[in-house]
Amino acid sequence: MRCTMPPVEAPQPATTPSPDRRPISARDHALWKAVAGWLVQRGVSPNAISVVGMIACILAGVCLALTPHASGLAERGLWIAAAALVPFRLLCNMLDGMVAIGRGVASPVGELYNEIPDRISDMATLIGLGFATAAHPTLGAFVASLAVFVAYVRAAAKVAGAPQDYRGPMAKQQRMVVVIIVCLWMGCAPVDWRTLGDRSIANIPLTAPNIALLVIALGSMITVARRVRRAAAVLNASPRR
Fold it and tell me: What is the CATH number of domain 44-237?
């Protein structure tokens, strides 16, 4: 009598979202589910989507940095182009995870493609905004470094054993929303509405781009403080190893 063993099933990749995943309510929208499904059917790589989003923000930064060298409709067109490219980056950031789950794939380098393009995108956009019309380059560079530090605090807390913390008030999405708003304002509002006259703070003129950068800077500092406080509370409450 021949004894046969039941076939051993190969382990299947997980298709459920990670608890560390950034909460985005738009993932449940029927339109984006359909778009993600279309990308899944065509075998599009989630990592490729991440890179496309990064390229969009690099182009947005270039458009912003070119605004002082243009005038009239050309300058306004650059602002509007940046206002369209930045949300496209956010859309890619959402779709890459949806496609990865939809395809049931997890790349060994997926975490790198999640984080590195995001940091490049933040720096390109915020530094570009610093070089834009009526903006302050040093302020743009400072805010870009703060954006990277916000992400660093989240990553450091995770390494230390705390859960991922995506709270704001100036997390990635909120930073980019502020950039989108100022781009639309500069692209559509009358020229006289771009400044608050001769007012300034610490020799930084209160123009629309500078105000946006200052808002992001202040919000980023608050975000860092909130994330550090929460991570410390969680770690202090955890059993000692």
Answer: 1.20.120.1760
